[in-house]
Design goal:
The first copy, chain A, is an alpha/beta fold and about 160 residues long. Chain A has three helices and twelve strands, in the order E-E-E-E-E-E-H-E-E-E-E-E-H-H-E. Helix content of chain A is about 20%, strand content about 40%. At the A-B interface, strand 2, helix 1 and strand 7 of A face strand 2, helix 1 and strand 7 of B.
């Protein structure tokens, strides 16, 4: 489904939905980050998606990473909240969702790397220094910076 | 609105709603905790309530504390996530909401203590040692324990 992100846009459509969602910064033993190349907006991102009723939030994180990358992970910690009401996502079915996202840090414990063949056209381990050269949404870049910032002792609140 | 909490209850009604909500453990300079005595279930609790579209999550925390206690607060940190899908809240209008709650720690920066006269029949600063003697829902007691646990370096994930 196509999606347009509006940030601080006075012409953004009115919010009609709030769905808690997650992203996860998964690192391997070499410190590389698990990245996906999304079909919907042609941007690189870390895996993630929306909470479904009946799940705990860590269930959601594990399911989304499994669906999008094939990997089983352990959720290590929460690295930030991203709930800026001036960041709005407009989908082509008319849903206008306020950003309400929690970002976690995880590590792979099993599974085998693969894309889902639908939402994802590539799945790759990327060294942090190489992330700068990829095309990422600024809000995604911020989540990764916060998650990898070892000087940060508590989750970012935004 | 009356509410019944079901935890690990095989006869709990089916979930039809997920609304992100918050609680906040506010302490004063003496280490006392800001507690309210709720009208709906006659239990003591820390202030909190549901996220409204157009708010950041810290906006929600500040608004709920203001509405329920009269105090203006600064949000200091996130102390835990509480998203157990086997904790279900059934309201008398038919809504059956899965628990999806974030707990924060705050400190008072202004305002004047008062109840809202509707949802709250008392508002009081309570020393941590005295909380044990109050009638609290176990899930609320857990949030307070996690928030006051100085040995905990990262938010509880549940």
């Amino acid at each position: 489904m196509a999606r347009i992100d509006h940030i601080d846009d006075p012409n953004a459509p009115a919010i009609n939905s709030v769905v808690p969602s997650v992203t996860c910064v998964v690192q391997n033993d070499d410190g590389q980050v698990l990245m996906i190349h999304r079909v919907d907006n042609d941007l690189w991102a870390v895996p993630g998606g929306g909470h479904e009723p009946g799940e705990s939030i860590t269930d959601t994180v594990r399911r989304e990473v499994r669906e999008e990358t094939g990997l089983e992970i352990e959720v290590l910690r929460l690295s930030g909240t991203y709930t800026n009401p001036r960041h709005v996502m407009a989908y082509d079915d008319g849903e206008v969702r306020q950003q309400f996202s929690l970002c976690f840090v995880g590590r792979a414990v099993g599974g085998r790397l693969r894309g889902d063949g639908v939402e994802t056209k590539a799945v790759r381990w990327v060294a942090p220094a190489d992330i700068a050269g990829l095309n990422l949404h600024p809000s995604m870049r911020l989540r990764i910076e916060h998650a990898l910032d070892s000087g940060r002792t508590a989750p970012y609140l935004g």
